[in-house]
Amino acid sequence: MNPDNSRRLLIIGGRGALGSALIDHFKSEGYFVASVDRGQNSKSHFPISLEEVASATLEQQVHLVNEKLEKLAPLKFHGILCVAGGWAGGNVKDSNFLANVDLMWKQNMHSSLLAACIATNHLAEGGVLVLTGAYLALTPTPGMIAYGLAKAGVHHLVKSLASEESGLPEGTKIFGILPITLDTPNNRKCMPGADTGTWTPLNFIASLLQTWIENDPATPLSGSLVSLLTHDGNTTTQIN
């Protein structure tokens, strides 16, 4: 299917399980899909790799992505979906606690900040920006403090960007998705005895995000943190 330039998406974290599923879904729906990750995902129409600046500052990474996306100008994106992130456990007494704080901040907050900065130049007015938080970060996370800290930061960023004078294009709608466990091949491999009936399918998320991008009447208010709750294989949403 040839992409429709009137429907354009940018996916941050396009090589991960969720990012790759989003690329497949939106391409099948006729969208033009660009992606950003540490390496290229050749399934997207316009892949951008951060590999050459992986050890650079966040500012340098933003500059590189902006520079690459200028090749698409004056076209802008109707949605920017940031699904990059990572997980680490441990409490404050663990020997690798501070290293994990640094890692979680980079994997979760840096990717979200990159998406927000890119949106200021490349998201169309009235477009949708989605960041990925975590349901568990709505409450204390003593057994995975670094992870909870970073994801709570993402939640704060969503609320701040939804406020006036945040710097985003006029009419931007921003949401945070808050999954618990995603149903991915890697999670099934690492947790073979787990109850997968409580894991959220990737296709549910893809369909949900499409309704928001296409302005479905049920789209939540900008600034909403939307928990994804799955029980017995059925997923529902809860606005926080």
Automatic annotation (TrEMBL):
Uppermost EC category: oxidoreductase
CDD domains per UniProt: DHPR_SDR_c_like (cd05334)
GO BP: L-phenylalanine catabolic process; tetrahydrobiopterin biosynthetic process
Reaction catalyzed: 5,6,7,8-tetrahydropteridine + NAD(+) = 6,7-dihydropteridine + NADH + H(+); 5,6,7,8-tetrahydropteridine + NADP(+) = 6,7-dihydropteridine + NADPH + H(+)
EC number(s) reported in the record: 1.5.1.34
Keywords, comma-separated and alphabetical: NADP, Oxidoreductase, Tetrahydrobiopterin biosynthesis
Molecular function (Gene Ontology), one example: NADPH binding
Classification via Pfam families: adh_short
One cellular component term from this protein's GO annotations in UniProt: cytoplasm
Record note on quaternary structure: Homodimer.
Described purpose of this protein according to its UniProt entry: Catalyzes the conversion of quinonoid dihydrobiopterin into tetrahydrobiopterin.
Similarity annotation: Belongs to the short-chain dehydrogenases/reductases (SDR) family.
Protein name listed in UniProt: Dihydropteridine reductase
Species annotation: Folsomia candida (Springtail)
Lineage: Eukaryota, Metazoa, Ecdysozoa, Arthropoda, Hexapoda
